[in-house]
């Protein structure tokens, strides 16, 4: 995996991108939420630059994976923790946790891989786990959303 400067917009965007890709699907609702909440701009990136970071993450995952991307459970904990360790600013950590929870809930269900990554972010950073809104439901592991817009 490539390294980014500590607390850089790219290191923050990669974490958001990882959560977007956690369940192997990026839904239209998630892409709409990305734009509606102006997440790239809030990370000090243009939308094309954010998408470049997402593509670079996909490239890294393909390069370092022994098999096609199967979701967050395929990511070694050490790799995820290394990404999280690139963010040491508490304010930025809180912002990222909130943005990721917002994106995960945007399609009205929470895939187990998405929940695992968001909870592990909070735990690793010693922050409270987000409280999921009632309209978002945790999706059983056996079901997947239809037709991904982005696939690694």
Write structural notes for this entry.
This protein is mainly alpha-helical and 152 residues long. The chain is built from seven helices and two strands; from the N terminus they run ααααααβαβ. It has helices at residues 9-21, 28-36, 39-42, 47-64, 77-85, 90-105, 112-124, and strands spanning 109-110, 137-138. A two-stranded parallel ribbon has the order 1-2. α2 (28-36) crosses α6 and α6 (90-105) packs antiparallel against α7. The longest helix has 18 residues, at 47-64. Mean pLDDT is 85; it is low at 142-151.
Summarize the helices and strands and which ones pair or pack.
Elements: H1 9-21, H2 28-36, H3 39-42, H4 47-64, H5 77-85, H6 90-105, E1 109-110, H7 112-124, E2 137-138
Helix pairs in contact: 1-4, 1-6, 1-7, 2-6, 6-7
Return the average pLDDT rounded to an integer. Answer: 85
Count of extended strands? 2
Which range does the strand content fall in? Answer: under 5%
Helix content: 40-55%
Distance between the termini: 15 Å
Helix and strand string, N-terminal first? HHHHHHEHE
Task: Briefly characterize the structure.
The chain has 152 residues and is an all-alpha fold. 54% of the residues lie in helices and 3% in strands. Strands 1-2 form a two-stranded parallel sheet.
Descriptive terms for the model:
single chain, 152 residues, mainly alpha, two-stranded parallel ribbon, 2 strands, globular
């Amino acid at each position: 995996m490539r390294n980014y400067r500590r607390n850089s917009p790219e290191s923050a965007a990669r974490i958001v991108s990882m959560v977007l890709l956690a369940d192997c699907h990026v839904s239209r609702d998630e892409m709409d939420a990305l734009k509606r909440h102006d997440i790239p701009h809030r990370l000090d990136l243009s939308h094309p630059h954010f998408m470049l970071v997402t593509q670079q993450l996909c490239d890294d995952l393909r390069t370092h994976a022994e098999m096609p991307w199967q979701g967050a459970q395929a990511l070694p904990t050490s790799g995820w923790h290394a990404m999280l360790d690139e963010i040491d600013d508490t304010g930025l950590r809180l912002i990222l946790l909130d943005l990721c929870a917002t994106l995960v809930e945007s399609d009205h269900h929470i895939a187990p891989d998405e929940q695992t990554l968001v909870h592990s972010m909070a735990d690793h950073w010693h922050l409270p786990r987000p409280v999921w809104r009632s309209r978002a439901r945790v999706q059983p592991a056996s079901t997947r959303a239809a037709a991904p817009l982005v696939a690694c």
